[in-house]
RNA sequence: GGUGGGUUGGCAGAGUGGUCGAAUGCACUGGUCUUGAAAACCAGAGUACCUACAAAGGUACCGGAGGUUCGAAUCCUCCACCCACCGCCA
């Protein structure tokens, strides 16, 4: 959601922003509805003022008839206003966030810009396997039975891959705690308000599973960003000096509606996966430096696993509606011979805060909307894919990254016999 | 799932049809007093929207959505949430 006054005063900026963000909403339509709305509101307000004035004390019997017709007139105008406001709001909520000036303009993923690469791509003395091949051979992933029970894009993880996920969770949680983030376990089913407030509705509604359709609709989260952002909805936070920093762990569900046929082998892209996510509420002055800090934290995490990666500044055609700017971290996958997305670091500025009603008291005493940021700490599935492929050995085993061994009973590798 | 009780401003808590945007207390802000502070006293202070250059004025908001009425925090309907007890249960 954008600031209404900003839209009125800068319609051209919004038009340009819509253009580079591939949003087809006509700003002039919004302004027209806005003008109609304001005119009606004024009219209704003054009629109601007259009615209130007359009704303050007991009106005479002969006056009541005219007051009654005045009341009916107001009701009619209010119905008209409601329909205008519905249309107006429908358009408003489709507007994407204002893009930060450092974001490259582009149509799709080809417009993303690599801003950093880290680590040396490993050389193998043998043809490196893809993770699903390793998973099959070491009996770590069961795709077939996953499909039998739940359909395509579901699987079972088995044996040491399960232990590796638990190790990663422990390690990543400790890592974030040490950085001063508050640990959270969150609800996985949320109401519509939370989905709308974080900006997943209406933009990405087709990505979200809906359940409980007979009663109040509930939605399965696609990321713990949703319950973390909504945690403080309708609150005034104390972030004038220090940001509020959380990390959450949850299972995540995605319909992968537009991804037919993509990444069908292995566990790169499924309907269900686990993830640790960081989420920060801060004031408007700090958000851009915090955005950079959050990226650095995620980089540190990948560096500690010693997996090569690159950082992308995502272009206007490839970022989500709530994002003002987004970095992706792509980890190197030797089996595929390419970098694949493993983390995503966004500054949503005040976009979510406006929808969720989250403010802070500024130093001048005025209440302002907070800025919100989110970043992946560790998407378990893809992190394990990266570990499997980067740490594979000539004998077909997988070495366990040093930092994780303490959580793996001190063992140094995953092999078939385990 | 059943029964009962609740939901009012930052918090506590009055208010069952007519100056109620809402008593009172606490907390908060400014002032007086004081060397300073406390206490005491005085004053102020909610959110959103509309009109206006501004000063200011108006409208809405007492969990949410509808309804009755000239007029609703107060009456009616539906819904959500919270609390207590019972049942079931990881």
TrEMBL record:
It catalyses: tRNA(Ser) + L-serine + ATP = L-seryl-tRNA(Ser) + AMP + diphosphate + H(+); tRNA(Sec) + L-serine + ATP = L-seryl-tRNA(Sec) + AMP + diphosphate + H(+). L-serine binds at residues 223-225, 254, 277, 374, 376. It is an enzyme of class 6 (ligase). ATP binds at residues 254-256, 341-344. GO terms for biological process: selenocysteine biosynthetic process; seryl-tRNA aminoacylation. Pathway: Aminoacyl-tRNA biosynthesis; selenocysteinyl-tRNA(Sec) biosynthesis; L-seryl-tRNA(Sec) from L-serine and tRNA(Sec): step 1/1. The keyword Ligase applies. Its EC number is 6.1.1.11. Its main location: cytoplasm. GO terms for molecular function: ATP binding; serine-tRNA ligase activity. Residues 130-401 form the Aminoacyl-transfer RNA synthetases class-II family profile domain. One of its GO terms (cellular component) is cytoplasm. CDD domains: SerRS_core. It holds the Pfam family tRNA-synt_2b. The keyword Lyase does not apply. InterPro entries: aa-tRNA-synt_IIb (IPR002314), aa-tRNA-synth_II (IPR006195), aa-tRNA-synth_II/BPL/LPL (IPR045864), Ser-tRNA-ligase_type_1 (IPR002317), Ser-tRNA-synth_1_N (IPR015866), SerRS_1_N_sf (IPR042103), SerRS_core (IPR033729), tRNA-bd_arm (IPR010978). Residues 67-94 form a coiled coil. Keywords: Aminoacyl-tRNA synthetase, ATP-binding, Coiled coil, Cytoplasm, Ligase, Nucleotide-binding, Protein biosynthesis. The record marks 376 as: Important for serine binding. Consists of two distinct domains, a catalytic core and a N-terminal extension that is involved in tRNA binding. Belongs to the class-II aminoacyl-tRNA synthetase family. Type-1 seryl-tRNA synthetase subfamily. Catalyzes the attachment of serine to tRNA(Ser). Is also able to aminoacylate tRNA(Sec) with serine, to form the misacylated tRNA L-seryl-tRNA(Sec), which will be further converted into selenocysteinyl-tRNA(Sec). Homodimer. The tRNA molecule binds across the dimer. PANTHER family: SERYL-TRNA SYNTHETASE. This is Serine--tRNA ligase. It comes from Candidatus Komeilibacteria bacterium RIFCSPLOWO2_02_FULL_48_11. The gene is serS.
């Amino acid at each position: 959601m954008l600031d209404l006054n900003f839209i009125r005063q800068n319609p051209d900026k919004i038009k340009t922003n819509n253009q580079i963000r591939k949003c087809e909403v006509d700003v002039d339509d919004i302004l027209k509805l806005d003008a109609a709305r304001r005119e009606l509101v004024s009219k209704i307000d003054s009629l109601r003022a007259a009615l209130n004035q007359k009704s303050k004390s007991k009106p005479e019997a002969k006056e009541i008839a005219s007051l009654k017709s005045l009341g009916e007139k107001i009701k009619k105008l209010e119905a008209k206003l409601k329909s205008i406001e519905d249309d107006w709001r429908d358009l408003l909520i489709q507007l994407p966030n204002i893009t930060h000036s450092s974001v490259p303009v582009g149509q799709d993923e080809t417009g993303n810009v690599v801003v950093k690469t880290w680590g040396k791509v490993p050389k193998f003395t043998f043809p490196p396997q893809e993770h699903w091949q390793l998973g099959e051979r070491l009996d770590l992933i069961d795709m077939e039975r996953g499909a039998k029970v739940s359909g395509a894009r579901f699987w079972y993880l088995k044996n040491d891959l399960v232990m590796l996920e638990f190790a990663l969770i422990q390690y990543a949680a400790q890592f974030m705690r040490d950085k001063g983030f508050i640990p959270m376990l969150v609800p996985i089913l949320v109401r519509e308000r939370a989905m709308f407030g974080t900006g997943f509705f209406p933009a990405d509604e087709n990505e979200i599973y809906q359940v409980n359709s007979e009663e109040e609709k509930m939605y399965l989260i696609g990321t713990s960003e949703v319950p973390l952002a909504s945690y403080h909805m309708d609150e005034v936070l104390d972030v004038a000096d220090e940001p509020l920093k959380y990390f959450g762990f949850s299972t995540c569900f995605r319909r992968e509606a537009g991804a037919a046929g993509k990444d069908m082998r292995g566990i790169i892209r499924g309907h269900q996966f686990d993830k640790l996510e960081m989420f920060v509420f801060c004031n408007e002055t700090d958000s851009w430096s915090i955005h950079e800090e959050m990226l650095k934290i995620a980089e540190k995490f990948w560096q500690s696993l010693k997996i090569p990666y690159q950082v992308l500044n995502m272009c206007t055609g490839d970022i989500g509606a709530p994002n003002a700017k987004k970095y992706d971290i792509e980890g190197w996958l030797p089996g595929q011979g390419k970098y694949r997305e493993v983390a995503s670091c966004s500054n949503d500025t005040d976009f979510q805060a406006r929808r969720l009603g989250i403010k802070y008291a500024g130093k001048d005493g005025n209440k302002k909307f907070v800025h919100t940021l989110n970043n992946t700490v560790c998407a378990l599935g893809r992190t394990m894919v990266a570990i499997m492929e980067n740490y594979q050995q000539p004998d077909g085993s997988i070495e366990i990254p040093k930092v994780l061994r303490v959580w793996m009973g001190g063992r140094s590798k995953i092999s078939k016999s385990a």
